[in-house]
Amino acid sequence: MKKVLTGNVAAAYGATAARVNVVAAYPITPQTTIVEILSEIVADGELKADFVKVESEHSALAACIGAQSAGARTFTATSAQGLALMHELIHWSARARLPIVLTNVNRAMAPGWSIWADATDSIAQRDTGWMQVYCENNQEVFDTVIMSYKIGENENILLPTLINLDAFFLSHTSQVVDIYDSERIDSFLPPYNPKYKLDVNAPRSFGALTSPEHYYEFSYLLHNAHKKAKEVIREVGKEFGKKFGREYGLVEEYKCEDADEILVTYGTIAGTTKDAVDRLREKGRKVGAFKIRYFRPFPDEEVIEVLSKAKKIGVIDRAVSFGHEGPFLSEVKAALYESGNYVPVYGFVAGLGGRDVSIADIENIHDHMINNEPENLIWIGVKK
Question: What is each CA distance from 366 to 289, 312, 347, 350, in whole angstroms?
């Protein structure tokens, strides 16, 4: 069935399709309609789940932690300041190995107060142990919610997932989305039944005081779970493709095979970049686009395999690590450096606070790469 949905509705439908058991809800613009739609779905009896209204984003994730620990499949959503308020429990849930799915509508951090798109809120959670995915369109939002449960709940992974979609560019923009029949989704994603959970008939200790003798190993196991997750992400993406006709991986290549220059992007800027690549190809320029879907675990292997063949690379970030450079730029350069492939890499910051990034902007970025030496932090469209 095809439906015209906003990104927020697509996220709510994804959680419904995954048959979540608990939804923890607290409003924040531009995320609010995700949990509003879910409240209606639960109230109408279309989803048999507990809808928990809480007093803050911190409490929303706390409710998910408690429910997930007891064996429930859980979902919540937030944006920007709300995600920041969750930060303590973002760490806690990852180290507790709870495969919660959280949809974050990427919104700029205050002040100045903004409700528009910016990836700085999610980038700030990069070292917490959560998997992170960035979506290009509303179909990808819907599909990624479903896949994230299958990936995170794998007994060798057991990691929570932060799914990111750009404020307003996706959250409030309508697109055609394929909604799959429930029988096929159920055959792809079985009910959640964890091996270890809170159970009075099988008492165990969870999250207890840990001495230096063991804490180090817990960290090691968490890191290894991310390494193992890469292959699971690839396998689940292929399985999803066979069942539903859309295959996903950690990255997506677009006309990179013979490209001299490759533009690296994520989120909605990836779609704009593909259009720019088409225009540049018409002008005879051999340029490609490389979309990074998963920021964690970071796809080192794909980055090295594809980007090391190019003559120049441009990384476009909708976030900035203040005092340094773009966060995706740092990761791409590190991967290439470790592989011994010293391809010139250009770093661009664009679209902060919801500023539009046009096809013309992408073309200008490519012009800059052609005509200048590499720089680590080039601000696109800044008013001086």
Answer: 11, 10, 12, 14
In 167-207, DSSP assigns E strands to 174-178
**Threshold 0.85, pTM exceeds:** yes
- Sign of the CA dihedral running 60, 236, 247, 123: positive
In three-state secondary structure terms, 6 is strand
pLDDT given for residue 339 in this prediction: 87
Give the C-alpha separation, 16 to 37, whole Å. Answer: 10
What's residue 384's pLDDT? Answer: 81
CB 269 within 8 Å of CB 281? no
Rounded distance between C-alpha atoms, residue 244 and residue 229, angstroms: 21
* Structural domains of the chain ordered from first start: 2-244 (3.40.50.970), 252-379 (3.40.50.920)
Query: How high is the pLDDT of residue 341?
Result: 80
Which tokens in the block code for residue 248? 């996903």
In sign, the C-alpha dihedral spanning 227, 119, 128, 332 is positive
Residue 25 and residue 52 in contact, taking contact as beta carbons nearer than 8 Å: yes
Which segments in the chain show pLDDT lower than 50? none
